[in-house]
Automatic annotation (TrEMBL):
The lineage of its organism: Bacteria, Pseudomonadati, Pseudomonadota, Gammaproteobacteria, Alteromonadales. InterPro entries: Anthracycline_SecMetBiosynth, Glyas_Bleomycin-R_OHBP_Dase, Glyas_Fos-R_dOase_dom, VOC_core. This is Glyoxalase. Transmembrane segments: none annotated. Residues 10-125, 139-254 form the VOC domain. It comes from Shewanella saliphila. It comes from the Bacteria.
Amino acid sequence: MKVQQYQQGQPCWIELATHDWDAGKAFYQALFGWGADDMPMPEGHYTMLQIEGDDIGAMYPMPEDMQALPTHWTLYFAVDDVNVSAELVKQAGGQVIAGPHSVGDAGRMALCTDPEGSRFALWQGQDHIGIKRAQEANTLCWVELACRDAAAAKTFYSKVLGYQTKLADMADFKYTEWYVGEQAVGGLLEMTAEWGDAPAHWMNYFAVDDCDAALAKAKSLGATVCVPATDIPNVGRFSVLNDPQGGFFSIISLLDPAA
C-alpha cells in the first residue's frame, strides 16, 4: 500500500547506522529484497532503501564521532512541529541530543532520548514524508518500546506524541498498545529481571510472508537469533534477530485478520 501522509505520532521512518556499510547493505538487500539509491556524503553514502523505487528506510556508515556506538536502527515519529515536540521532550524529562535542524528541503528533525535513555527521532516532513509503503511484506509494520517503568513511559510519550494507550488482550503478561486516533501504531512492554542489563529501547518489526523461512535466510546470511520463531496467539509468528554488524530488529508474519 502506498503511503501519502503521516499524522502526529505515527512511526514514519527508520534509519540504520552501521559500522560496515557494504556488508550491512548486502545483508538487508539479500534478506528483504530491498533496492538501494546511494547518495554520496562526506563519510561515504546515505542509502535510501527502497521497494520498487519507493523509500522505506535508509542506512549510512557511522562517522568518527559515532564509532563508540553499536550498529543500530533509529525510529522516527512524525510530528506537526518539531520545535514544539522537542521542547515537550525536555519538559517531560527526556533529552534532545541533536537538533532541531533542517535536512535540506526534506524536512526537519531532532534526535532525542526518553527518560530511560531510549533513542528516537522526531520528523516534520516537508518534501519527504518518510516511509512510502506499508501493510506489505518487507516493510515496517510495528514498533515496540521495552522499558522498566511502563507508567512513566506512558506519561512521557502521551505528552510528547499525543498517544492514547490501551491494554492488549495478552494472557501471560501486560502489553500496552499506543494509539493515534483509532489506529494502534505500536506497543509497550515492561522489562523483567529476565532481560538482565539490556537497556530500554525501541524495536522495529518488519513484516514477512513466512517467519520461519525468513529466519532461516537471515541465519544463512550471518544473523544471530536472539528470540527464536515464536507464536503470538491471534497475532502471528515473530523472531528477534541481530544482524552481522550487531543491529537488532524483529521479523513477523502476521495472521490474516479475515481468516
